[in-house]
Amino acid sequence: MKNLMNMLTFAFALVSVVTLPSFASGTPQSAADCQKTYAGDKDKTRACIIGLKK
Questions:
Q1: What is the full per-residue pLDDT of the chain (54 aa) written as tens digits?
Q2: Going by C-beta distance under 8 Å and a sequence separation of 6 or more, which residues neighbour residue 28?
């Protein structure tokens, strides 16, 4: 039973380490981030920058 709990804890920690950074860096934090993310699409870049101001 203790081995099962250890394996579940390890699996949860592994999944967290892999997935959490991708969620954290997914949202642009500045106008420069918006321009990098939506390079070439002026409408999306503008909408992103407007969203940052709210």
A1: 889 999 999 888 888 877 776 666 667 888 998 998 889 899 999 999 999 887
A2: 34, 36, 37, 48, 52
